[in-house]
Amino acid sequence: MTMTPSSEIIPMRSSPPAGQPQSDRMTLFLANELFPLMAGLWPASASQLDVNAQGAAVAWGAMLRGLSVALVRDVVMTMAEDTDRQFAPRPAEVRASALGRQPAEVVTSAGPCVSIRACEMMAEARVFQRDRAVLADAVAAELALVLAEKARQGVTVTGKIV
Prior knowledge:
- The protein is mainly alpha-helical.
- 59% of the residues lie in helices and 4% in strands.
- The protein is built from eight helices and two strands; from the N terminus they run H-H-H-H-H-H-E-H-H-E.
- Helix 2 runs parallel beside helix 5 (69-80) and helix 5 crosses helix 6 (91-101).
- The radius of gyration is 27 Å and the shape is elongated.
- The model is unreliable at 1-22 (pLDDT under 50).
């Protein structure tokens, strides 16, 4: 008896189902290149990748949205170099590894920024200089003043009071 791989039985759609935004290029890459590559690299996962190629492509495409085809291919090939790995990686593993390779985005704030802990230390120092004793109620009242002062200055306070 000859078994026909299910990817030949279930044709890949050229467009994803409604509510599943995915580029045609990524879908074609997943179905025609990445899944056969992974099935060859990890034979133990071949049936998993082939049983529901359409559903797997949609799931992988949703997880890998925003990543380039070249980056995904490079990540999978790097994972293939691990000789102890028996099964194909999951899309979340590929995404995490790909994001780890990309340079970190520099986030710029609109203005100066200070942590809540720094504000607490300023309040505590002011109370100590003024009273030569540090009481919790006095520090809390001074902290409110420091936070109001920082807000007037346009300083962003990050963190939270524990």
